[in-house]
Amino acid sequence: MDLIIASKSEVRQRILSCTKISIMAVSPQIDEESITRSLVAEKATPRDIADTLAEHKAKKVSVKNPGTWVLGCDQILAFEGEIFGKPKTPSALNSMLSRFSGQTHRLITANVIYKNAKPVWRYVAISHMTMYPMTKAEIENYVAEAWPDAQHTAGGYYFEENPHLFSEVNGNWFDIMGLSIKPIVEFLNQHTTKSILQSPKLVAVLGHPISHSKSPRMHRHWLKTNAISGDYIAIDIPPQRFVETLRVLIGAGVSGFNVTVPHKEKALLLSDKRSARAEKIGAANTLVIDANGKINADNTDGYGFITNLRSHCKHWVPAAGPALVLGAGGASRAIIVSLLEAGAPKIYLSNRTQQRALDVASEISPIIEVVSWAHKEQYLTKVMTVVNTTSLGMTGKPPLKIDISKINPGALVTDLVYSPIETPLLKQAKTLGCSVVGGIGMLLNQGVPGFEAWFGIRPVVNAEIEAIVVE
Ligand code: ATR
Predict the structure, then answer these.
(1) 331 lines ligand 1 (CB under 6 A)
(2) What is the pTM of this model?
(3) Does the annotation count 86 as an active-site position?
(4) Of the residues 20, 264, 280, 376, which is catalytic?
(5) CA-CA distance, 450 to 457, in Å (whole number)?
(6) What are the Cα distances from residue 273, in Å, to 100, 143, 204, 277, 301?
(7) Residue 286's closest CA among 272, 305, 268, 306?
(8) Which domains does the chain have, with CATH numbers?
(9) Which 8-state DSSP code applies to residue 291?
(10) Tens of pLDDT, residues 165-223
């Protein structure tokens, strides 16, 4: 064990464990309230209060654990000469947020390391946090929805889930979360003879909604199996705040992003540098932030799509004949660009709303022929590849109504829908002798270039990761 953390906070434990520091968590059992009261009475500064509380926690645990580094942390919110901790009731949260609305407050994160009941190291980080003005109704809605999680954080705004509440943040993500990991890692590297530890890199997937995303599970598995210091989280950002919140997150030190519906087009527009394929598709799903905070945008959806088909169907030759693509949404654009790049000689594109398909065709290539949704079946005899890019057939969505009885049995049929793993379209195509490939492999493969760009190791797509993601 490298370190004891004198805290039962899950967030702090998670930050330490994603750096591979081996830890033990011990609750310090100190009376924070009475210590804080007497410090306030002595007119101690918020910085001193946070530092003293962190010190008390570390000391208490250190006395009982000689010979081991013990870390104590504390976080205090300071605003207009007052200090604020965790809200005790929903109405306390409401009045806190009414005070912070439209204003800048400080979040003070104190870290103290003890050994043999003596302080050996301390570090205090101060983050400046500016909240957007919130209306009374917005505060009430927030309190009603967020209370179960918000009650556990200083100030009650739960930054990890709600960075869009902030117009400006001057501070590091991990400091804001309550533990200054970078200087702690530096301290441990200087004072232990064990292998060198790395500060964690943080990557996030941004969408609206986002709770369904399987990306955190996938990237966290790759982080773990490759022993990389890092974390990957999902953040819901409302569309009207996407650009500003992305800037806030980059400023807080987030190293990279995946971007999903409905932010992909905006992500491309605000990037500083774009790959040719992202430009052609008109949307980005992968952002890499360089050392100067500049945004490099890529779109790996088409790569994921083609790699999935090639790895599951070795004899598939995209150039052998036309493709029929169903759907003309964001995913469809990436598929079409990648099929054309892979040599597809012609693409029949069919969409319920024909104008959308015509727009895609005119923006991407004259090789695309738009065909009517009502008559899409008649192209099944001529094509070598059939792709469903619509959400039809997904669990909870309407079925994809298509009669594929006349399909060319030499065709490859694939579906972007991966829930269920085998869609009715794939099941039927299989019985007609076609090769079929499910959509889950596209999700896995589109994540590979991003992971490699952020963390420096190319992850492996195999049956194990597939099972973990569909679980
Ligand atoms: P994505 O970016 O994931 O492709 P999208 O842009 O919302 O998502 O596109 C969804 C696709 O599914 C569109 O092609 C949509 O057709 P419309 O352009 O006519 O909306 C298609 N789709 C969704 N529901 C459909 C339905 N009930 N019948 C036919 N097509 C449907």
Answers:
(1) yes
(2) 0.95
(3) no
(4) 264
(5) 10
(6) 36, 39, 19, 12, 18
(7) 268
(8) 3-199 (3.90.950.10), 202-297 (3.40.50.10860), 302-438 (3.40.50.720)
(9) T
(10) 999 999 999 999 999 999 999 999 999 877 788 999 999 999 999 998 999 999 999 99
